[in-house]
């Protein structure tokens, strides 16, 4: 997996969309007082975000047994729930239990009043089994809540709170269209199919320590569709099976899910994904670290003096980092000014989707959650120390600085900085060195300094190509820039942003002590040893007519024709004009 190409641009887009949708970041220049309301630029106008906050508040009230507060919130924000007697019956039945649980005479009288005015009337028309459930729950009057052998032990169980909280969350999400961001749902899906694949193949997951902690085992309960379960499902069997296999449902479960979504397969898929529970607090930490690594948000280190204040041993990395900031202060400062500030869940600080399960384990009525928590402790999921976090952010700043220099075409400076960090890095990543020296060569050609450009070619490009025959072809193409000294050779050479991204993934290894290579999927080396080219949105597939036109006019092999087209956005006329110019 380490060598699998990563489309960093697509991943960045998903992560940033998640952070914005959850109101986790704000613009760096916006610094509202903790006591003041957020500025328009830092607030999220999305009604989906506000709806998700309301759903979480309702969920917390139900999990705490505060049914009245939950009903008040529903009456204000989602009155349609209270119009559904099936759901109202569930709420009032839980309210009856919570009143009895308090154990006071006043609460007991309130429980009797609840039965007379609300619970009994709802039981008459909620659903066919409701009246039997109503009669059964009345046994709570005579059986103690601590009697685990009583016929109403399940009614007394505090697990019921979390069941009804999950059910209400499911219904509210669907009706208010308050689905989680795409990144969150994608993680749920990918982790679930990864776990399923490993289980079926009988292999251990190489990322089990992450997946087991991030995606919790239990799901929110599904909503019961209003239609009769005895009716023949009016859905295509292909849709039923597709949904069942995608999210591990029984056939009947898939039918019920499609009924609830009124036959909308995509909506049913979204509903089922949102039933899966993520540890949101952990996800936020991962997103935050990713955003720091990619330079989306500021890490908090503004100057070398700020680094010096960290109470930690000054190691090689810190020394190089301070030197690095001094040498490239203007470039790093310019890059930092573009970043956003990490805001965190200030609107909903006490919420994580895992909280309810941690509480369940404390109450000792959910053995699964208890064993899961124990296994997490045994696997050593401790929080990272501030020192470890600072060290990681120091390294990220170094790599981001080098990425910024690369995107500006300052290849010579990048090579110097990388060599200062790790003299052996380019020995393990010689293609990256070749690409950086290509940039340096093309930059010198563009400026008219042909003598210096040839020195770079003789000292670096030539020896590298001599040791790696696949680099001979891109070397020849690079030298062709000397034939057009007045053109913008650098602009027609390597895509600097893609090279900068590839460098960041690779340069990270020089701070980790490994030679792991993870490249951006937007920059690839052609199969015949050609120079790196920017792959089009069609994943490098050129129009067949354009390929044949280049082959015919220029007398080139098919591979070379495709390679040239890839450099000129697939336009055959542009290729021909450039060749004969």
TrEMBL record:
A Pfam family assignment: CTLH
InterPro entries noted in UniProt: CTLH/CRA (IPR024964), CTLH_C (IPR006595), Ubq-SigPath_Reg (IPR050618)
Region feature (Disordered): 509-539
SMART domains: CTLH
Source species: Hevea brasiliensis (Para rubber tree)
PROSITE patterns found in the cross-reference section: CTLH
Coiled coil: none
Composition bias type Low complexity, residue spans: 509-523
Protein name per Swiss-Prot or TrEMBL: CTLH domain-containing protein
């Amino acid at each position: 997996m380490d060598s699998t190409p990563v489309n960093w641009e697509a991943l960045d887009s998903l992560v940033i969309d998640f952070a914005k949708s959850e109101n986790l970041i704000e613009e760096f220049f916006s610094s509202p007082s903790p006591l003041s309301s957020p500025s328009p630029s830092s607030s999220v106008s999305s009604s989906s975000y506000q709806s998700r906050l309301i759903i979480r508040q309702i969920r917390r009230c139900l999990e705490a047994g505060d049914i009245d507060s939950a009903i008040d919130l529903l009456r204000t924000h989602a009155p349609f729930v209270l119009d559904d007697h099936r759901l109202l019956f569930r709420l009032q039945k839980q309210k009856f239990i919570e009143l009895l649980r308090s154990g006071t005479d006043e609460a007991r009288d309130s429980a009797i009043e609840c039965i007379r005015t609300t619970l009994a009337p709802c039981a008459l028309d909620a659903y066919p089994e409701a009246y039997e459930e109503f009669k059964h729950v009345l046994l709570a009057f005579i059986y103690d809540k601590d009697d685990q052998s009583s016929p109403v032990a399940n009614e007394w169980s505090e697990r019921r709170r979390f069941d009804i909280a999950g059910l209400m969350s499911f219904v509210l999400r669907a009706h208010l269209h308050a689905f989680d961001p795409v990144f969150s749902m994608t993680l749920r899906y990918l982790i679930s199919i990864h776990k399923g694949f490993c289980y079926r193949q009988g292999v251990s997951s190489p990322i089990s320590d992450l997946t087991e902690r991030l995606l919790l085992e239990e799901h929110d309960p599904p909503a019961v569709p209003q239609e009769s379960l005895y009716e023949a499902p009016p859905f295509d069997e292909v849709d039923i099976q597709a949904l069942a296999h995608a999210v591990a449902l029984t056939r009947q479960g898939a039918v019920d899910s499609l009924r609830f979504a009124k036959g909308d397969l995509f909506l049913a898929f979204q509903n089922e994904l949102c039933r899966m529970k993520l540890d949101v607090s952990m996800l936020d930490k991962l997103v935050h670290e990713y955003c720091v690594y990619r330079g989306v948000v500021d890490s908090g280190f503004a100057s070398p003096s700020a680094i010096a204040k960290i109470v930690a041993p000054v190691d090689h990395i810190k020394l190089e980092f301070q030197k690095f900031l001094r040498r490239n202060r203007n470039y790093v400062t310019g890059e930092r000014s573009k970043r956003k500030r990490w805001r965190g869940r200030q609107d909903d600080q006490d919420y994580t989707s895992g909280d309810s399960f941690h509480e369940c384990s404390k109450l000792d009525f959910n053995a699964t959650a208890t064993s899961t928590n124990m296994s997490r402790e045994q696997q050593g999921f401790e929080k990272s120390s501030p020192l470890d976090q600072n060290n990681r952010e120091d390294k990220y700043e170094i790599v981001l600085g080098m990425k910024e220099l690369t995107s500006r075409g300052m290849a010579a400076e990048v090579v110097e900085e990388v060599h200062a960090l790790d003299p052996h890095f380019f020995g393990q990543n010689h293609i990256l060195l070749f690409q950086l020296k290509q940039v340096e060569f093309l930059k010198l050609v563009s400026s008219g300094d042909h003598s210096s450009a040839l020195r770079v070619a003789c000292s670096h490009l030539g020896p590298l190509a001599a040791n790696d025959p696949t680099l001979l072809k891109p070397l020849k193409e690079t030298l062709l820039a000397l034939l057009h000294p007045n053109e913008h050779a650098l602009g027609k050479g390597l895509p600097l942003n893609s090279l900068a991204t590839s460098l960041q993934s690779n340069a990270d290894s020089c701070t980790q002590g490994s030679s792991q290579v993870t490249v951006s999927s937007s920059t690839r080396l052609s199969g015949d040893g050609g120079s790196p080219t920017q792959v089009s949105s069609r994943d490098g597939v050129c129009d067949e007519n354009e390929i044949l036109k280049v082959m015919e006019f220029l007398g080139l092999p098919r591979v070379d024709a495709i390679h040239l087209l890839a450099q000129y956005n697939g336009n055959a006329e542009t290729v021909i004009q450039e060749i004969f110019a």
